Amino acid sequence: MVRYKVHYGRKTKTTFSEGFIYRVHPRGFFLIDVLKTLEKLEVAAKFLSRFPSEKVLITSAREYAEKGIQRMCELTGMTALTGRFLPGTLTNYALKEHKEADVVFVVDHNFDSQAVEEATRMKIPVVSFVDTNSYPQFVDLTIPGNSKGRSSLAVLFWTLTVLYLREKGLLSPGGVLENPIEDFMVTFE
Questions:
Q1: Domains of the chain
Q2: Do 7 and 21 form a contact (C-beta atoms < 8 A)?
Q3: CA gap 65, 82 in Å, rounded
Q4: What's the confidence (pLDDT) of residue 7?
Q5: What local confidence, expressed as pLDDT, does residue 46 receive?
Q6: Secondary structure string (H, E, C) spanning the chain
Q7: Which of 7, 16, 24, 105 is deepest in the core (most CB within 10 A)?
Q8: Per residue in 1-47, pLDDT tens?
Q9: Is pLDDT above 60 for 125?
Q10: Which one is predicted more confidently, 114 or 109?
């Protein structure tokens, strides 16, 4: 996780994030305790495994998250929604793009605020990655980590996929994916 900069936070911190910051980098940004990230990923995997996989909606408009979301959903059977989250996706049954979900996972609760707002209105639990500048008011389960970097998001989705598949019994307790982390990473040509 350190190699992929999951622990890199922002230069801003909130009172919420103080619990998972372990020190300040010489350049002035806060560093996230990756042991706490791993603990929360395990909790999230257990939580998500309680729902039918097709009822778990993973969404983000963040470009760097797109490939990780797509790959995780391919491997787990969850529902992916990348790009713009249209208003009414969770609340308007007449909308062609309407989605039914038992839980919504967003990459960044601030960036993906439309999805969080609709899930909250529909009383659907929300899971989100959180950074050091986060104050996740309407998020039910938070996972500390760098939610903006392409390599960080790739390793977060790869790890969550492995833990989820272990919880579902589709991977042995010590098993890992044959897919490398780079399969979850957006590349630019």
A1: 17-171 (3.40.50.10490)
A2: no
A3: 8
A4: 63
A5: 95
A6: CCCCCCCECCCCCCCCHHHHEEEECCCCCEEECHHHHHHHHHHHHHHHCCCCHHHEEEEECCHHHHHHHHHHHHHHCCEEEECCCCCCCCCCCCCCCCCCCCEEEECCCCCCHHHHHHHHHCCCCEEEEECCCCCCCCCCEEEECCCCCHHHHHHHHHHHHHHHHHHCCCCCCCCCCCCCHHHHCCCCC
A7: 105
A8: 666 666 666 666 666 566 766 776 677 767 777 788 889 999 999 99
A9: yes
A10: 114
Q: Are 5 and 151 in contact (CB under 8 A)?
A: yes
72 contacts 53 by C-beta, under 8 angstroms: no
Contacts of 177 (CB under 8 A, 6+ apart): 75, 158, 161, 162, 165, 171
What tokens does 49 get?
Answer: 């495994």
Nearest to 48 by CA among 57, 35, 39: 57
pTM of the model: 0.87
Question: How many Cα atoms occupy the beta-carbon half-sphere of 107 within 13 Å?
Answer: 30
Dig out the tokens for 35 from the structure: 């042991």
User: Strand pairing of 30-32 and 21-24?
Assistant: antiparallel
Model confidence at 108, in pLDDT bands (50, 70, 90)? Answer: confident
What distance in Å separates the CA atoms of residue 184 and residue 116, rounded to the nearest whole number? 23
pLDDT score recorded for residue 62: 84
